[in-house]
């Protein structure tokens, strides 16, 4: 069951009709999706393997490497050699968006601030063809081990893992590009069929997330080079974790908003954004709820 306080928040932010559509999205069984790891294989080879195993799929306009699986469950994909060998990475479609919007280039110093389990980190490595210097930060030891495992499995040799709290990164560091996929309440990824939902999705979780998000974003802007860009993203659809955080940082005049636009953006299921130029994805059977903003340091 979706907690009553969240239903009230969603209705206040989006109105009754959109709130109802969001809650329907919370109840959907999301389709399996994955990303082809071009450090180890190519899209054509993966299509061949899927065809040989009678696995039907759908592609998306905005990412050549992304696949939505139509007729089998995740376990069957995990049994394929292309999964075991790290040639594909199981990843939600929405979580593939921030690295694409970041659009990192080769020969850059790139920071992934809260990197585990490594889906976005390894995606950045593939975009840069392993030709950038990527620092992936994770403070939790167990999650850090998972991050290192995935980096090695995916062949992302350009990644260095830093095991510490990203809020405490030394200010002498300086990066050309930063991805901050901030810890959040996860309000965009809720499964309304989860009987334990009301126990772990609380008002306190939202408040704690907001504090962490602000601290991480302030740190990111400190260590981002002038004239460089960063991406702030969450898997939340709540204004106080997204637009409110961005509006407050824009008021400092340290950064400006860069409008998000890329090929295929028109096919995304979108919610109305409170800040023009940001991206807010609505949860449905293919996508998780997700927010993305792109910022340039002045």
Query: Helix fraction?
Result: 25-40%
CATH superfamily of the largest domain: Vaccinia Virus protein VP39
Structural domain count = 2
Which class of the largest domain in CATH terms?
A: Alpha Beta
Gap between N and C termini: 44 Å
Which sheet architecture does the biggest sheet show?
A: 8 strands, mixed
SS-based class? alpha/beta
What do the pLDDT scores average to? 97
Uncertain stretches: none
Q: Count up the helices.
A: 11
Radius of gyration (Å): 19 Å
Which percent range describes the beta-strand content?
15-25%
At CATH level 2, the architecture of the largest domain is 3-Layer(aba) Sandwich
Helix and strand element order: HHEHEEHHEHEHEHEEHHEHEEE
Tell me the CATH topology of the largest domain: Rossmann fold
Shape: globular
Total strand count, please? 12
In brief:
With about 300 residues, the protein is an alpha/beta fold.
What does this structure look like?
The structure is a single chain. This protein has two domains: 4-29 and 94-297, Rossmann fold; 31-91, Sun protein, domain 3 (Alpha-Beta Plaits, 2-Layer Sandwich). It has helices spanning 4-14, 16-26, 43-52, 74-78, 81-84, 93-102, 119-127, 141-154, 197-200, 203-223, 243-250; strands spanning 33-36, 57-60, 63-69, 88-90, 109-112, 133-137, 159-162, 175-181, 224-234, 255-258, 279-281, 290-297. The chain has 298 residues and is of the alpha/beta class. The longest helix is centred in the C-terminal third of the chain and has 21 residues, at 203-223. Strands 5, 6, 7, 8, 9, 10, 11 and 12 form an eight-stranded mixed sheet that branches. Helix 6 (93-102) crosses helix 7. It contains eleven helices and twelve strands.
